[in-house]
């Protein structure tokens, strides 16, 4: 076990210090020594709407495009306001309720209200 932090790129523990940087001996990735806290905090997924605004749990968003609901003949119209969204992992990154129906949507079709 090394006393230095593992590589953020390949997760190997074979790292060494070089001036103000750490270097991974396996993949050659370099990162600043003072970025240890930033690396740990960067694991949080940042979900952004169609205009690049970050979204958070509980936000209200508006659809910017008509969306067909897969497996149904229902269409969610552009301009529909969706309240109290929840950020989830996966391809469809927003979990919400529209007309009492639980639906997962992609953030790229939303704008923050």
UniProtKB/TrEMBL annotation:
All copies of the Protein YjdM N-terminal domain together span 3-32
Q: Which residues form the Protein YjdM C-terminal domain?
A: 47-113
Q: Which residues cross the membrane?
A: none
Protein family (similarity comment): Belongs to the YjdM family.
Q: What is this protein called?
A: Zinc ribbon domain-containing protein YjdM
Give the organism the record lists.
Denitrificimonas halotolerans
């Amino acid at each position: 076990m090394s006393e230095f932090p593992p590589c953020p790129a390949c997760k190997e523990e074979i790292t060494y210090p070089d001036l103000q940087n750490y270097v991974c001996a396996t993949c050659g990735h370099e990162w600043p020594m003072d970025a240890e806290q930033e690396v740990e905090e960067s694991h949080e997924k940042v979900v952004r709407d169609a205009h690049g605004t970050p979204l958070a749990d509980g936000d209200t968003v508006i659809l910017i495009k008509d969306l067909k609901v897969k497996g149904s003949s229902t269409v969610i119209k552009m301009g529909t306001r969706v309240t109290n969204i929840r950020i989830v992992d996966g391809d469809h990154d927003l979990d919400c309720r529209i007309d009492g129906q639980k639906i997962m949507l992609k953030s790229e079709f939303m704008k923050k209200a």
